[in-house]
Design goal:
The structure is a single chain. By secondary structure, this protein is an alpha+beta fold. The protein has a domain of 52 residues. It is 40% helix and 20% strand. It contains seven helices and eleven strands. The strands form four sheets. It has a four-stranded mixed sheet. A three-stranded mixed sheet has the order 4-9-8. A two-stranded antiparallel sheet has the order 1-2.
Length: 192
């Protein structure tokens, strides 16, 4: 199937856990791929919020759900906003259904020239929807995790883990270790 540069690509499930968007697999197509997936979600799922995350994000979904239930307006377009940026970083973007619909409706050909996180921010800002920064920590090595003050980590919804050794990504090992530590922290807090 051909997808013209002005249109949103189609998407379909190729099995129960994998969505395939009809664009080539490269970074220059990431925005079209993200918008195509959003369009698919609008057309096929009932949802109040959508989280666009990538493999470097460790998210406390229960805390995020609880936070949204107390202040849904704050989460219309939210996530980690880097200093000097006007959009939510692509490793974890929280969007209300209305924001996803706005993105799909107002997507323009020129938006595909930007990476998806910046394009999302640009589309929403044209429609007067601006990001709400959410607390997060960026972890490049295990000592960064160990140095997070425990009081601060208790309210943390997102951790970003991006680590490489000599140009080779080693996130999975670090990710697994931190995930297990966070899970055990949560278990011990629930027992108290």
């Amino acid at each position: 199937m051909f997808c013209g540069s002005n249109s949103i690509p189609s998407a379909e499930f190729i099995d129960k856990s994998k969505l395939e968007v009809d664009v080539s697999e490269n970074w220059s197509q990431i925005t079209k791929k993200t918008i195509g997936a959003m369009k698919f979600c609008i057309e096929n799922f009932e949802f109040d919020f959508l989280v666009r995350a990538n493999s470097s994000c460790l998210m406390d979904t229960e805390l995020l759900k609880d936070s949204i239930s107390h202040d849904a307006v704050k989460y219309e377009y939210a996530g980690p906003v880097q200093q000097g940026k006007t959009f939510v970083s692509g490793w974890c973007i929280v969007l209300s259904r209305e924001s996803v619909e706005t993105i799909v409706k107002y997507y323009q050909k020129s938006d595909s020239l930007l990476f998806d996180d910046e394009a999302i921010g640009k589309i929403l800002s044209r429609e007067k929807v601006f990001p709400t920064p959410l607390p997060h920590f960026e972890i490049k090595e295990f000592s960064d995790y160990l140095n997070i003050p425990s009081k601060q980590s208790m309210g943390m919804r997102f951790l970003r883990l991006k680590n490489d050794s000599g140009g080779i990504r080693v996130d999975p090992g670090l990710f697994g270790t931190i995930f297990e530590l966070e899970r055990s922290k949560k278990s011990s807090n629930n027992e108290d």
